[in-house]
DNA sequence: AGATAACCGAGACGGTACGTCTCGTCTTTAG
DNA sequence: CTAAAGACGAGACGTACCGTCTCGGTTATCT
């Protein structure tokens, strides 16, 4: 026993086959556990804020073993990141097409700002920011998330012939506003701000068209 | 903070009594302890970042009892805040005057961005933001600090006849970029970014001059 | 242990029914897996002691699925017990016959004590004892094992006309010494001790012959 | 500040003094916590046996922080050891003097066996043995304890002119029975067993009197 | 030959306990 | 009455195993 391992390669001898060792062994990942963890994380952030977000609390709330979280996510940060990425992808149109740069920017920024202001989303962003400022693993997660969001906006701008370097700066300014207001909370993010910002960006972009 | 002492010694000078009965009882606050705590905090932030900033670590580094910290500051945040107050005043120029809007913006943003990027300042900003996202009272403090900074830039823009509403938005975009990069750390703040941003703002402003 | 299979066919004999339902279907037990588990257990006990003996470690060492162990043994206890039973049967002469009580006792105890002191056996005994003190299922296993050993010595004594009650006590004293030294480790078990003990028992026995 | 540390040795320079560094600073050990831990340990052993004895359970039962246990005891074993040492003083019979060897042995063994069988003592012995089989440092403690017990019985035997070597063996047989039954739990230790064992030892001893 | 059934290895699952770390508070002694 | 030292209850951390529950795949026996 114990010797006829890695089955499925008995035919190796016959040919120069690829030696596919075995597609999978063991129980599969439980999708219910995954979504229970994400739901519990969202609930804790909504109700108790960043301070209440511990692995213990998530596991307790999701009725999941702690090890199950550690098995699939390298850190608390990764869980929040996955939560944020899913929501952003669903809520913001990646490629609006209104015919004009200004129109596309308004559509994109309206969706982005209004989503960021949603009471179920804002705490997630706040937590990402707060933890990223303290813990490296969160910083990495946030870096990935924000890079991904900027890439979408940059693509939009480049479709309208804005040079890459300028597009990157404009994207940083647009998203910078989201995070600035998220941190300070001195004013609400909404349609009016989105439109005004879109106009600023469109103006700055038009001067640099290729 | 930490400056409104237990009082009770104002009458020392006035008492012309012979047998100065007792000018004070008990040991006075040790100023060396206070600055040792602040120095240790700065050092830890510089060397290990916000993650390594625990009360235990500060006490150890400052060679001070933990209780001494709790006695004078209500939280870690308060220590960092005091540190920030001492440093911030020195660093940022109020009102450059080069003659042109673009020139003034470049001067102001260069100073602002380069200060924010300084290795002894950046970790302080990071900690301030992090704490503001967790605790309302620090959010208020940060709100006041950022409002004050925006007011300076707004005044600069209004000197060049930019309407107030637009000036406020442009100020948010300029400072938003600082915080965006501070949070994500995906790129360095510096002179190049300052100039490019100044150009974007100047362009957007010129369209709306009164 | 591990030998009383799932049963459920005891009624076959009684039922004079035509369709004897089915004695067995499916793959048979893999003997190689069984001995791999026992070998791995012995190796772990030898090399890492009782502390390192976990089901995970056995499975890893034996290159066997954990479920395979749980399928055939109800607990760690059962595995070690099976190992002990196999070794003990081989090592200890059941019924020496030298003609005299003292001679038989000396032969029996020499074999018993020297076996218990063997470096591949002692850790097993230590584990049996240690686990029996912590877990009830282990205690049951040890109780069966020690009862069986006492029965052999009791039979020897009764062959020499020692009354059963006294034989039982003498057996307990003889084996008690093994465990006492195994626990405390204050002295080695060997031939000298065996002979001295045999003399004590023989003396005590001769006073009570039937 | 913070530099005049380890006070109390300012006078070192003046002489070759012993350099007593400082007697003590800080909060003292809480005696209530210590006894709460020992009481909780005793209770858990009584009610749930060695298996239920975890650091978590002790801390919970004693309403004490886990760290408090780790601060004062290096292991579970050490807690049980301290508990045993406290109880041992009360339970140990000293030196009976009935005039005859058999009488003295009966008195000594009755007390010993009955004490070992007490429901509040037996679990302690079981745990002591179990830990000794796993951890060397604890094995040393148990070795000392058992050696001391044997010394008492040996002294009793030698008072009756039993040669030292034989006395040592008889003591091991007598105490071996205690541990044998403690481990296996196959029969109760009590007066009957004590008397029968006393008779066996007395018989074996009388053959070797000096 | 095909169906059925038990075995096998791998490994995910909900849990419990581990020993460590830090928190904010409390207590003691020195100055 | 403050400072330092340090014990205290609390609770989160990440790891190791527990015993159970799937998985895909491999023998064996029965029809």
What does this molecule look like?
The structure is a homotetramer of 210-residue chains. Chain A is an all-alpha fold and 210 residues long. Chain A is built from nine helices and no strands. Chain A has helices spanning 31-48, 55-62, 66-72, 76-91, 101-117, 122-132, 136-159, 164-184, 191-206. In chain A, helix 4 packs antiparallel against helix 6. The longest helix of chain A has 24 residues, at 136-159. Chain A is elongated, with a radius of gyration of 22 Å. Residues 1-19 of chain A have low confidence and may be disordered. Chains in contact: A-B, A-C, B-D, C-D. The interface between A and B is large, with 42 and 39 residues.
Annotate the secondary structure layout.
The structure is a homotetramer of 210-residue chains.
Chain A: H1 31-48, H2 55-62, H3 66-72, H4 76-91, H5 101-117, H6 122-132, H7 136-159, H8 164-184, H9 191-206
Helix pairs in contact in A: 1-2, 1-4, 4-6, 4-7, 5-9, 6-7, 7-8, 8-9
The first copy, chain A, binds a DNA duplex (31 and 31 nucleotides) through residues 1-2, 4-5, 7-8, 22-30, 33, 54-57, 59, 63-68, 70-71.
């Amino acid at each position: 026993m114990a010797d006829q391992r890695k089955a499925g390669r008995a035919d190796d001898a016959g040919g120069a086959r690829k030696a596919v060792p075995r597609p999978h062994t063991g129980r599969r990942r439980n999708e219910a556990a995954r979504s229970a963890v994400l739901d519990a994380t969202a609930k804790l952030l909504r109700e108790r804020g960043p301070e209440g977000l511990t692995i213990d609390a998530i596991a307790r709330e999701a009725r999941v073993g702690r090890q199950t979280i550690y098995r699939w996510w390298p850190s608390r940060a990764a869980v929040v990141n996955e939560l944020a990425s899913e929501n952003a992808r669903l809520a913001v149109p990646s490629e609006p097409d209104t015919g004009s740069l200004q129109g596309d920017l308004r559509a994109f920024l309206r969706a982005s700002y209004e989503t960021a202001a949603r009471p179920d989303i804002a705490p997630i962003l706040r937590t990402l920011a707060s933890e990223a400022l303290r813990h490296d693993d969160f910083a990495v997660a946030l870096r990935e998330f924000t890079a991904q969001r900027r890439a979408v906006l940059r693509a939009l701008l480049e479709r309208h012939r804005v040079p890459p370097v300028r597009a990157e700066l404009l994207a940083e300014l647009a998203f910078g506003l989201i995070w600035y207001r998220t941190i300070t909370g001195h004013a609400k993010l909404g349609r009016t701000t989105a439109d005004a910002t879109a106009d600023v960006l469109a103006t700055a972009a038009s001067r640099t068209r290729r």
